[in-house]
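SEQUENCE-TO-STRUCTURE ENTRY
===========================
What this section holds: a protein sequence and its matching fold, both as plain text.
Question of interest: how does this chain fold, as expressed in backbone structure tokens?
***
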Amino acid sequence: MVNRYQYPDLDEQKVITYIEDIKRDIWLQMVYEMSPVEKVKLINHVFYTVHGFSGNTTNHQDPHNSFISHVLESKKGNQILLAVIYSIIAQKLDVPVYGVNLPQHFILAYIDENSEEKLSDEKILFYINAFNKGYIFGRRDVDYFLKQLKLKQDAHFYEPCSNLDIVKRIIRNLISSYERSGSMEKVLELKELLDIFPPNSEGV
């Protein structure tokens, strides 16, 4: 049984309040006629420039990078936690941005909600790198990244994943971080937690 008191406390109200504050700062500047790219650039400006969020490049393996309360307080996090916070804020603003479970990285996809296509990579307008200050890029860049990793271009590397997949990846990141620090008791507890989840899940 995982003992949640062994992990950093999550002040739920503080997290909710801060996310709402960031959302409000963006909403006050958002115009209905903005294009998808303009909306993302506005989110980027408020999230990275005004509020000062950035990727933790100096201590990337720190377990704290996987706890939302710590990331909101320190303004630094890993790829997936920054992407999670970014997407939560975007979705609260009705901006259709969702997580993509890319190998060795975690990115975001901007979905074309007006498209009649079923949810697939054909419905994705562009991708966003939340770890790199919201850098916008296209499918060809994902193609190249997968080629560098010598991986096939499977559809699930391009399409939004489920919230369950995101939670499982965060847990795996924590397992890796605690293994590096030698905290094997926490590793065993997190593996026990991971075993509770079903092995596969569908995208959003």
Notes: The mean pLDDT is 88. Residues 66 and 173 are 7 Å apart (CA to CA). The beta strands are 54-55, 76-77, 97-100, 107-111, 124-129, 135-137.
